[in-house]
Design goal:
heterotrimer; A alpha/beta; B alpha+beta; C alpha+beta; A: alpha/beta; Rossmann fold; 4-stranded parallel beta sheet; 3-stranded parallel beta sheet; 11 strands; globular; C: alpha+beta; Uridine Diphospho-n-acetylenolpyruvylglucosamine Reductase, domain 2; Uridine Diphospho-n-acetylenolpyruvylglucosamine Reductase, domain 3; 5 domains; 7-stranded antiparallel beta sheet; 5-stranded antiparallel beta sheet
Chain lengths: 424, 489, 557
């Protein structure tokens, strides 16, 4: 794909502003009605999906250039995909998220990047992680003493892929260890990629560094194929999306599961029993990349075909990604199977969940904006009266752990795995 | 003067120009407390061409014009000149009911047409027009509507000025045009009808609501030659019910709920004295009724038209009765000795030439303004408190609360009867009127129709709005010939 | 052309650095690409409105006032918009700034007095969501719930499916706070008197008349910053109960809500039914011929696509051939969707009976397919929230409304078949517009509260990415305009704004307006507009969406 391939969308976008709001049918209040962190924070139309279509068109037509402002606008998209969901309530021929990312790719190709991004990508290239300051040699420290198999050496059906955040973040490493512990209790044996365990690079793609992403992804796919594993399980929603949706485009054919899906199956099969009471009222945050962006990739090759003179369709039928079939029920079923836990929902949930602020690499590049985005979510979480905000992604967890609501109040942030661990 | 008379005679003929002091004396004052001033001439007009010629003449001669459409007596001071040398332009002779279109429920009338005349003509076509409460026999329908007198079916007013739609106007500068959708067609009604345009939409044309320059303007902007009005289907069944209460606040929740659910056709709250004044044929009867009637009562009219009339009436009657019960009240079809039919007939039909409010004591003054329902009780308490202080008998104050514009706002009216033959009674009423008006204004009463002293009270609150109003007046009446001195502009 | 440093700084001093931009990339996203949306004057190929000199985002009335004063000082044109629907919200000159009102989003619901006080960025959906919490609702005009309620109420026509029951936007306007183009603040009615927001009229003549007529002044009479609207009963749940899989959301509402697709054997019967609803104006909660916008032949199939999360437009041809859908589609050839809402059980029963009676009197029927629970729940959600405006564009990415005809249904109904045939023939012959069966008329049962004036609009779907389609659509609307003139029906809806913005996206000059408007049957009223503008907009800073005629052009004796 290139930006030019989106030209028709740019011209067919009708400036309806749906990309700035959660689906209208789902709106319950003014306070939690907006959907796009960047257009909500920066306010200018330019920051919305509509604005980005128009900006791209303008750039292609040479009516403006990549000023610092333009570059900042382009990279401020969290790639959370909620504009995409809202747009597709009505539109069947626009792909705002794909376009937003392509716009970034196009900027990156022209060298229009943010200084912080350079540091991140350099680290990806050198240390195989997008966490600045982290090194390859320390990547496997979290699993010391766990005696995990190396799937490239030992036969193992299931690959466990923790992702950079769980691997390096000292506050989150325990969560990762808990997963292994829970699996063991359920009799599940998993292995890791060992020394070949590297960053999935999904965030590089979200940031527009397609070349770097493709390079990393190709190597990871090769390693996975070499290992012969049938299933990959990851607790990181970002990695989940990358493997399941993006790697699939590059040919990865193994089954990809998020930990919540796997745990939910174990609970349903009776292999994992949650018996201990956890007296908590919790609210669940759907990570973008597990929820609306967690839909399975369906290969498609085809072209646009007009019927009834001018009505756009595709031949053959083109798969439609609009968040309809993301992973929403598994985490909720897990939470509801824990004795004593009461789940209360926020207003923006499931396919129209508000982003945590970490998407698109923005937590590393736009600190204030990312914090504001997380604070917004914590405000929403606190409005439910919940004791804790539970999520299933380390990036979300990390974003929320330092966030405060509009009254300066924090909320206890929990990984769903912690909650499960407490119930065993 | 002689020259002016001659010139006017050239326009309308000698039989329509009057300078007889006895006749002019009648126009020098009205029943309100406004200051009297004798006009120079009275001219009666018969058509819009005459109106336009007179307005153009007035511009040339810098002669103030006071348009009057209703027959006497008058009560609000708006038809009494505020400046010398004024010419009264009497439109009461323009009495044509120009058209009645049943399909679109639109009638077009001239300013001299009264309620009695119009309702009779409409009834023949199976239509009726919403009305203000028992309008006096000589009241001009157009004036009553232009001046936004409260209408009994305020809950059917989608637009604040319903049933007003299009108009023909001669502006203060002498130009003549149609308003609303009618302005987009030729300046000829028959040609418009020929192309199936029936003056239905009153707004506009386009981005300017010209009709709003004329409403509540007391004749300061221009003269209306005809207006199209939205009619209703004549009911086949129509009943009036009562919800009595001891205190006004007891009725607030009831009214609010009925308004909320969009029930009833007529809905208003009055106190016992107000209702007694309406029903009593003479002072004695008013006094007697006052003693017998409940202190407060909500009047609820429900009707049925051609489609399922009984079902509609019954369904609403039961639902509204349920609402009354919900608030500890009871809806009844009659009051002791008084049937719903009697009250309904009094309410919707024209009264005598003299206003029925004179029955109790011979004269009256009203204080009325707009507010919200929740604030009505506060004003009522204040009225009683102030009456006591002023020595005005609080029990004589009639109160009328009428939802307007679908219940967005409420017309709150205090009727202050007094004996015009008694100086003390008159003076007390006058003092009370002035003090209470000022106090209410300070409390947030909105005098949307700023007659007499209310204009300064109201317009002084917002200098910017007054300036804007002056600018508007300058556009449509650049030489300030239309009823100058009114509205404090 | 960018503002010079001094001017830019002066504006920046008002709103702060964060809320102003003159970056070319940002400015470009404030141009209307008018071939994409219904601008009512084209469509033209590669048509864009001018590039603003700056985009400014004020946060309060005071800031708006200061901006306007500065615009007057520097003689810079300005135009405010919030949700930027259609071309009218965009500037029309190279020497103009665009005001984006989205930072002003105040919303207060006064439950007791049934009103909402709103700023520009309170869109229909959020006002409705907040109002429903206390049992109230608002008229969401045809533009849909994504648009600024204040904009519809102050700036444009503002009627839609609910206007029959709730009145159109202008009818619901109460007090308003308005910065006039000369920088003065106009507070209308009770607001100016410090008495609250409940009334927008008077004292004396209503000054709001200069800024809001049948249509609003499309941002040409200054900037409305805050206003109050009348709210109406919502006898439903506090939250809109939406469920189902995206995009086939649906709302399961209590039994006191029903929706029917009422069908009629002839256009005459259709007009009679409209009149019966007009005569009995408390039956419907909402009335709109909605799904016919997809076309007479395609609407049944489209309803089936939109209520199934797994269907797409490629399923359209097959569904259109499906015998059941085909039959049902034929049965709703002449149709309207209605919603009734019972305030009580009795009230509901009465309304149900009334509907049946009207069908009996007109020989009409309820469409069977549209009674399927999944379709009923989708229709209820669709019509009550009106959150699917963008389905207008879904076929091809662009549409224009045309014909419009007369609000008098006794005039329009007999012409429907002729108009449909013209469109059908054009689509088949030239292929520039979507071919969905000729009749693609949709619209509100009333553009005035209580009924009596009907909104009609044919949907012409075309491809904004296809130059031939754009050109062909323009030619089609030119031809229907000719037909409209021949029939004495006036201006085609697709040309409603043709006198307000030129084909190059720029303002008309006064000379050009004079040449056009002198030909009107009663040009007089436009000379008053000229005088109003002269007084309240002395520097003529708001563009040509305000119609004026130089008084000297009109010879009077």
């Amino acid at each position: 794909m290139s930006l030019q391939d989106f030209r028709a969308m740019m011209e067919r976008c009708s400036n309806c502003s749906y990309c700035k709001w959660i689906p209208f049918d789902k709106m319950k209040s003014q306070r939690f009605a907006e959907n796009c962190p960047s257009s909500s924070y920066y306010n200018f139309n330019t920051y919305s999906a509509r604005g980005r279509f128009q900006l791209a068109q303008t750039l292609m037509d040479g009516r403006c250039d990549y000023s610092d402002t333009v570059t900042e606008v382009i990279h401020s998209c969290m790639a959370c995909g909620l504009c995409d969901v809202s747009c597709k309530v009505c539109r069947y021929n626009l792909e705002p998220l794909e376009h937003n990312i392509e716009l970034k790719v196009s900027a990156v190709e022209k060298g229009k990047i943010l200084p912080e991004q350079k540091v991140i990508i350099d680290n990806l290239k050198k240390q195989m992680t997008m966490l600045p300051g982290k090194t390859k040699v320390k990547r496997l420290d979290w699993m010391k003493d766990l005696d995990l198999k190396d799937i490239l050496k030992d036969k193992c059906d299931i690959a466990f892929f923790p992702g950079c955040k769980y691997s390096y973040d000292e506050n989150l490493q325990n969560v990762c260890r808990s997963v292994i512990d829970i699996f063991k209790k359920a009799g599940v044996i998993v292995g890791t990629l060992g020394k070949s365990d590297n960053c999935c690079a999904g965030r590089a793609l979200q940031m527009g560094f397609r070349e770097e992403y493709t390079k990393a992804a190709t190597a990871n796919i090769k390693a996975l194929e070499k290992s012969g594993v049938k299933t990959l399980v990851t607790p990181c929603s970002d990695c989940y999306h990358t493997f399941k949706r993006q790697y699939a485009k590059l040919g990865l054919k193994i089954q990809v599961l998020h930990t919540v899906e796997y745990l939910n199956t174990l609970i349903k099969e009776g292999k994992l029993k949650l018996t201990k009471e956890v007296p908590l009222t919790v609210t669940y945050h759907d990570p973008c990349h597990l929820g609306r962006l967690g839909e399975e990739y369906i290969p498609w090759e085809g072209k646009e075909k007009k019927i009834l003179n001018q009505v756009h369709t595709w031949e053959p039928r083109r798969p439609r990604y609009n968040g309809a079939y993301g992973i929403y029920d598994a985490p909720r079923e897990i939470i509801q199977s824990i004795p004593g836990v009461k789940l209360v929902e926020m207003e923006r949930i499931r396919e129209y969940s508000w982003c945590c602020g970490a998407g698109g690499g923005c937590s590393e590049t736009y600190h204030e904006f990312a914090s504001w985005t997380a604070n917004e979510r914590v405000t929403e979480a606190n409005s439910t009266g919940a004791d804790a905000l539970v999520t299933a992604c380390p990036w979300c967890e990390s974003s929320f752990s330092n966030a405060v609501d509009e009254n300066g109040k924090k909320i206890k942030v929990m990984d769903i795995i912690e909650l499960v661990q407490q119930a065993i | 003067m002689g020259n002016k008379k001659n010139e006017l005679t050239k326009i309308v003929g000698s039989s329509n120009v009057f300078d007889d002091p006895a006749i002019l004396e009648n126009y020098s004052k009205d029943s309100s407390f406004c200051s009297p001033m004798i006009p120079r001439l009275l001219v009666k007009v018969n058509n819009v061409n005459e109106v336009q010629k007179i307005v153009k003449w007035a511009n040339k001669t810098n002669t103030p014009l006071i348009p009057v459409s209703s027959g006497p007596p008058h009560y609000k001071g708006d038809t009494v000149a505020s400046v010398p040398e004024a010419v009264i332009i009497d439109l009461s002779g323009m009495k044509k009911i120009i058209s009645i279109n049943c399909q679109h429920r639109i009638c077009i009338v001239e300013p001299g047409v009264t309620y009695g005349e119009l309702q009779k003509a409409l009834a023949k076509e199976g239509l009726t027009l919403s009305t203000s409460m028992a309008p006096r026999a000589t009241k001009s329908v157009i004036t009553s509507i232009l001046e936004a007198e409260p209408r009994l079916n305020g809950l059917s007013q989608w637009e604040f000025f319903d049933p007003l739609r299009c108009m023909e106007v001669v502006w203060g500068d002498g130009n003549r045009m149609f308003t609303g959708e009618a302005a987009q067609g030729p300046l000829d009604l028959e040609k418009q009808w020929a192309s199936q345009k029936w003056q239905v939409a009153g707004n506009g044309p386009f981005s300017t609501d010209f009709f709003r320059m004329l409403t509540m303007s007391q004749g300061t902007m221009g003269i209306v030659a005809w207006a199209s009005l939205k009619c209703e289907i004549l009911p086949t069944i129509h009943k009036m019910f009562f919800v009595p209460a001891q205190r006004p606040e007891q009725l607030n929740d009831f009214v609010r709920r009925v308004v909320r659910l969009r029930f009833s056709d007529e809905l208003m709250v009055v106190n016992g004295f107000y209702l007694a004044s309406l029903l009593g044929e003479n002072a004695k009867e008013v006094k007697q009724l006052k003693a017998e009637l409940p202190a407060w009562v909500a009047l609820v009219g429900i009707l049925g038209r051609k489609l399922l009339p009984e079902e509609r009436l019954e369904s609403q009657q039961l639902d509204i009765a349920d609402i009354a019960q919900q608030f500890g009240l009871r809806m009844t079809p009659s009051l002791p000795g008084i049937s719903g039919e009697k009250v309904l007939n009094k309410l919707i039909n024209p009264s005598d030439e003299k206003c029925w409010k004179e029955t109790a004591k011979g004269a009256f003054e009203d204080i009325f303004f707009l507010t919200t329902l929740d604030k009505t009780t506060m004003f009522i308490h204040m009225a009683h408190m102030m009456a006591e202080k002023a020595g005005y008998p609080a029990s004589d104050i009639g109160v009328y609360i009428q939802p307007k514009h679908r219940g967005s706002c409420y017309h709150l009216e205090f009727n202050l009867p007094y004996n015009p033959d008694c100086t003390k009674s008159t003076q007390t009423a006058k003092d009370f009127f002035k003090k209470a008006s000022k106090e209410f204004s300070d409390m947030g009463a909105y005098f949307s129709r700023p007659y007499g002293i209310w204009s300064r009270l109201q317009l002084n609150k917002d200098a910017q709005s007054t300036m804007i109003l002056k600018d508007l007046k300058g556009i449509f009446d650049p030489n300030n010939i239309m009823n100058p001195g009114k509205l404090a502009v | 052309m960018a503002l010079d440093k001094e001017k830019y700084q002066a504006f920046e001093d008002i709103v702060g650095k964060r809320n102003i931009s003159q970056d070319p990339g940002v400015l470009e996203t404030y141009r209307c690409i008018a071939q994409q949306s219904s601008a009512h004057y084209g469509p033209y190929v590669d048509h864009m409105t001018p590039l603003p000199q700056a985009v400014i985002l004020p946060g309060s009335t005071e800031e708006v006032q200061n901006i306007i004063k500065l615009c007057n000082k520097y003689k810079i044109q300005f135009k405010a918009s919030t949700t930027f629907w259609s071309a009218m919200g965009f500037i029309g000159s190279d020497y103009a700034v665009q005001i984006d009102m989205r930072r002003m989003k105040y919303l207060e619901i006064d439950e007791k007095n049934q009103m909402a006080i709103i700023e520009p960025h309170a869109i229909g959906a959020v006002v409705q969501a907040e109002a429903m919490k206390v049992g109230l609702n608002l008229n969401v005009p045809g533009v849909g719930c994504s648009s600024s309620v204040l904009a519809s109420t102050s700036g444009w026509v503002g009627f839609g499916p609910s206007s029959y029951f709730m009145g159109c936007a202008g009818e619901n306007l109460l007090g308003a706070e308005w910065v006039l183009p000369d920088g003065r603040i106009m507070r209308t009615g009770s607001l100016g008197a410090g008495a609250g927001w409940f009334c927008g009229e008077g004292p004396g003549p209503s000054a709001r008349g200069i800024a809001r007529g049948f249509a609003g002044s499309a941002g040409t009479m200054g900037i409305c910053c805050r206003l109050a609207i009348r709210l109406h009963p919502w006898p439903g749940p506090a939250n809109f109960p939406t469920e189902g899989t995206i995009p086939a959301y649906r709302a399961v509402l209590p039994d006191n809500f029903k929706t029917y697709t009422l069908c009629f054997p002839s256009w005459d019967a259709y007009a009679q039914a409209f009149n019966l609803f007009f005569e009995n104006q408390d039956i419907l909660y909402l009335g709109h011929r909605q799904f016919n916008m997809f076309g007479r032949d395609a609407k049944g199939a489209m309803v089936n696509i939109l209520t199934d999360p797994d269907k797409q437009f490629c399923d359209l041809p097959e569904l259109m051939k499906d015998p059941y859908i085909k039959k049902q589609t034929e049965l709703m050839k002449i149709d309207i969707q209605v919603v009734i809402a019972g305030m009580t059980k009795r009230n509901m029963e009465y309304k149900e009976k009334a509907i049946d009676k009207i069908l009996e009197l007109t020989g009409g029927w309820k469409n069977e397919m549209m009674l399927k629970p999944e379709i009923v729940n989708w229709v209820l959600m669709y019509l009550l929230r009106l959150g699917h405006k963008n389905l207008n564009y879904t076929f091809c990415g662009a549409y224009e409304g045309n014909y419009g005809m007369s609000p008098n249904h006794f005039v329009t109904a007999p012409l429907m078949e002729e108009a449909s045939e013209i469109k059908d023939k054009w689509a088949k012959k030239y292929t520039s517009i979507a071919d969905t069966g000729g009749d693609s008329d949709m619209g509100s049962i009333s553009i005035i509260g209580g009924g009596g004036a009907t909104g009609w609009e044919f949907f012409v779907n075309f491809d904004a990415y296809d130059k031939d389609s754009i050109k062909g659509t323009k030619e089609f609307i030119d031809s229907t305009q000719e037909w409209m003139f021949k029939k004495g029906l006036g201006v085609d809806m697709g040309r409603w704004n043709a006198d307000l913005r030129k084909s190059d996206g720029k303002n008309y000059s006064q000379e050009e307006h004079d040449a056009m408007y002198i030909k009107m049957p009663q040009p007089m009223f436009l000379t008053y507009n000229w005088k109003i503008r002269n007084v309240f907009n002395p520097n003529n800073l708001t563009g040509s969406y305000y119609r004026t005629l130089t008084p000297e052009k009109l010879k009077t004796d």
